[in-house]
Amino acid sequence: MRIEEAEEAIRSLLPEKRFRHSVGVSKTAVKLAKKYGADVEKAGIAGMLHDIAKYFSDADLEAAIRRRADISNDFLEYSDKLWHAPVGAVYAQEKLGIEDREILDAMTYHTTGRQNMNLLEKIIFLADYIEPGRDFPGVDEVREVAAENLDNAVYLELQKTVIHLLEKRQSVYPKTFEAYNDLVKKIQ
Ligand code: DGI
Ligand code: FE
Ligand code: FE
Ligand code: FE
Fold first, then answer.
1. CATH code for 3-136?
2. Is the Metal-binding keyword given for this protein (predicted)?
């Protein structure tokens, strides 16, 4: 699959605003891939597809998580906002024929992160947060750090996300903490 084919695949599945977000993530991921030496085509495809399951119903998302032995059922114990990520990867594999493990993992972990994220996983995780359409307090700081050091930017995103969740009295998926603990060791 090429980036343009990925764009066509999401067009009918996402409302206009989410479609534009996905194009923004794809373009940002391509830029980060060029800067940090990742596979540019994979970054563009994973960025385009990352939210493909965002508008599936909770019932469908839950059914997919239960059906697939390779998606941890512990997602169901946490926020339903997490569910579209692993289910999107399964959808990309089953319906779009994507078999590339790096693309599928980048999609699976784009929301929560995890420890030992590889280059493509970090790029998609970060691109989702800083694409040009995002506008929330602190995003410009992360954009600036992203231009300098990938791990520092991923760390900052995780720090802001965890603080945000705690302030809103929301649960934090364990892999998000694991990603934070991993990156805090790697920052400069
Ligand atoms: O799908 P997007 O809106 O583009 O972004 P996303 O997939 O990164 O979703 C982020 C949302 O998930 C954000 O509103 C925070 C929420 N969330 C809920 N629980 C957790 C969580 N995010 C992380 N990283 N970890 C959690 O435990
Ligand atoms: Fe998402
Ligand atoms: Fe995210
Ligand atoms: Fe997204």
1. 1.10.3210.10
2. yes
